[in-house]
Every structure is written in C-alpha cells, then in structure tokens.
Specification:
By secondary structure, the chain is mainly alpha-helical. Helix content is 55%, strand content 0%. The chain has 4 helices and no strands. The radius of gyration is 25 Å and the shape is elongated.
C-alpha cells in the first residue's frame, strides 16, 4: 500500500523516514510473535466454516427445523 500517494499533482511527496519504517517493521514483528497471534494463526478458516455451516444437529436453527419437519409451530 502506497501511503505517500497524493491527489494534488503539484504537491511534493514526503517519503517515510527510514528510522520510522524500521520502527514500524519492528512493531509488526512483535505483534506477529505474540501468543494471541500464534493461536489465531493456528486456526484454519475451513474448520471455522465447517463449524458454522455444518452444525452437529444438522440444522441451522433447531427449532425451525423441528417445526418444518413435524408441521407444528416451534
């Protein structure tokens, strides 16, 4: 992502100082190495999707499923 983009063609572009860039990279590296980030990286999107789209009882809404299959109000 280029954060130095300007909409004014006559304005001069101010680049990020190297010290600031190094600081930002260091912060990002520390955040990526945190225990929370490690746990979240271990979670797979497919496992989360399976849990949401294939519940154990086989229905998205158990009460509505019972009402439809038995023909009675839940």
């Amino acid at each position: 992502m280029d954060l130095s983009f300007t909409f004014d063609r006559n304005a001069c572009v101010t680049p990020i100082e190297p010290d600031l860039a190094v600081l930002l990279v260091g912060i990002a590296a520390c955040q990526a190495a945190s225990p929370t980030a490690r746990v979240q990286a271990g979670m797979t999107q497919t496992a989360i999707a399976r849990a949401l789209l294939a519940p154990r009882d086989g229905a998205f809404n158990t009460a509505a499923s019972r009402a439809v299959t038995t023909g009675k109000d839940a």
